[in-house]
Amino acid sequence: MTAKRLARLLVVVAVTVALAAHSHTLRDATRHLGRLSPGWLGLAVLAEGVSLVMSAELQRHLLASAGARLGRRFLVAVAYASGAVSALLPAGAALSASYSYRRLTGRGASRTLTAWVLVASGVVSIVALLFLGLVGAQVRGLLCSALGRLAGGAITTAGIGALALLAWTSRGSRLETISASVERGLDRADALLRLGRRRTVDQRLVLLSADGDEIAMGTTAWLGAVFLAAGNWLVDCAALALAFLALGVAVPWPGLLLAYVVSQIVVALPVLGCIGVAEGSVTLVLTCLGVAPDRALAVAVLYRLVTFWSVLPMGWLAWAHLRRQEGRVGLGSPASRDSLRVA
Question: How many helices and strands (H and E) does the chain possess?
């Protein structure tokens, strides 16, 4: 048994034992869920949809930095579909990235640019999440001590350094090297899952050649990317706050942002990526804020329903729509060429 599987097994056992020891908490949480407000729930679902739109807008912003103009509706559909792929399939994160890569290159974006955009959107999102964590920590007064200021300075320096490194890789041969590495990783993901298929991108449609890609992003453009990523996280955090309101539970506003960031970091850890960890992490951090365990569990379950299960139907509908669209519009057709405009 590998270390990753052992860690996941231990998490599952710990969650099972905790649930068994607190069966009354489950009963009380179920009672809270029975008092659900449809209006607040609808707003939470809407907020999650806006979050995905902002995620797509981030990729659109990065693509535009090299002159690639892909349609907003297409990128939103890819965001929904890739989210569904990531949620339900084994090694979902890798396959989701591979899926997005094939869709974007199939619309004419060069492989070099697409690989860089996938990496850049991930890095910018992580940096934005860390910066929001610092804001949440400051609201809670955790950065007032010398140790807190030291940790805050280290995180800020690391975040700025990551963005600077990303900007450095966006030039010339460094961009092609990053692209080649990402492509190899995506190919391995396809081969591992036996879902890969021969790429059918017509090279005549690759209007941005690998040799000519140059990402021209100034300070303002990078700040715009960070703000879009931060907006994506904040709207998702708003869905968590709306889950409180939907259940009639008081929102712990001073610590909500920090709790949200911590739970997202825990869920993102690949070693702990198994069923129940998302709900458990949100429940734990909310309990640490002083929320009663039964209410924290009810909020965590509802938040998971909104951000995971309610998105899946739209994701698979988007996947089917994109699949039909690919079959209806040939890669060499004028309609396909019109999907990408070079500024």
Answer: 14, 2
pLDDT tens profile 50-98: 999 999 999 999 998 877 888 899 999 999 999 888 877 656 677 788 8
Determine contact, residues 324/104, Cβ cutoff 8 Å. no
- Does 210 map to a domain? yes
Residue 315: inside a domain, yes or no? yes
Instruction: Give CA 145 to chain center in angstroms.
Output: 32
Phi, psi torsion values for 291, nearest 5 degrees: -75, 135
Cα separation of 131 and 135, whole Å? 6
Q: Is residue 318 part of a domain?
A: yes
Four-residue CA torsion sign, 13, 14, 19, 20: positive
Per-residue pLDDT tens digits for 127-159:
999 999 999 999 988 888 889 999 999 999 999
**Domain containing 175: what range?**
3-327
* Helix or strand (DSSP H, E) at 284: helix 277-288
Owner of token pair 């949480």: 29
Helix (H) or strand (E) holding 70: strand 68-70
Q: How many domains are contained in the chain?
A: 1
Classify residue 340: in a domain, yes or no: no
